[in-house]
Write the C-alpha cells for this entry.
Amino acid sequence: MTSPGVVKAVILARGLGTRMRRPDGAAALEPDQAAVADTGMKAMIPIGRPFLDYVLSALATAGFRDVCLVIGPEHNAIRDYYAHRDATDRLRISFAIQQRPLGTADAILAAASFAAGEPFVVINSDNYYPPEVLAALRTQQPPALPAFERTALIDKGNVPPERIASYGILDVAPDGSLRRIIEKPDAETLRALGEELQVSMNCWLFDAGIFDACLRVPPSARGELELPHAVQYAIDHGMRFQTLPVAAPVLDLSSRRDIQTVAAHLTGMDVRL
C-alpha cells in the first residue's frame, strides 16, 4: 500500500559550507557568486537567482506544498529572502533553527514540530533533485529512499567518478530493502561492488519513527549526530527502508568549481515557487 502523497519536505540548509569557502583559482565566478561562496551559504549561490529557488521549484512541481528550511541562527540572509517573498504561490515556507552545527540527524530533530507526526521528505539544500524523482518518492510508503545509479550520476549530471567515493554506497537486499550504508568506501570496496553501484544522495522519505533513531544514535567520531548513522541504527532496530531504483542525475553544488557546471544544467529552467 502506498502513501496518498506526502506534502511536507525538510531542506537541510545548516551546513558550514567549508569546501565552498575555500579559494579556487580555477573556478570562474561572477563577483556576486564569489561573495556568497565566501559565506559558505551554498543554497544562496546566485545562478540568475539563488540556487535554492531551483530546489524549491522542483519540490513544488513534484507536488509538495509545505517546506521547512533548517537553518542556523546566523543565517539571516536565507530567512530574510524567503520570509519576505510574495511570489510563493505553490509553497508554504517555514523555518526551523538548529542552534549548533551538531550534524544532520540533529538537524532532523529541529524539524520535529514541523513534521507534526506526518511523513516528510528530507533533502540537501546544495543538491538539485529532478522533480520526477521527488514525485515518485512522495508516493512511496515511508520509510524509503531513492537508490541513484552511479552511472547516471556521472553521465547525466555534474558528479565526477572520484566524488562517488565521498557518498554513501547502498547495500540493498534482493527484496529492495536497505541493509546498510557504506560511507566513504575505499577503492578496494568500490571495485568489489562493481560498476552497478547504487548511491545515497541524502534524499529520504521518513515517518515519525526516525526521530527516535536520531535521539538514540551515538555521536560520530566528529562528535556529530549523523543522519546515515541514525538510519543504520533504525535498520538495526527493525525499521525497514525500501529503495526506489533511480537512473537520474543529481546536481551537486559542493565547491566553487561546481558553480558553472551546475549553472549550465539549470540555464533556461522555469522556476516557480
About this structure: The chain has a mean pLDDT of 93. Residues 8-266 form a domain with the Spore Coat Polysaccharide Biosynthesis Protein SpsA; Chain A fold (CATH 3.90.550.10).
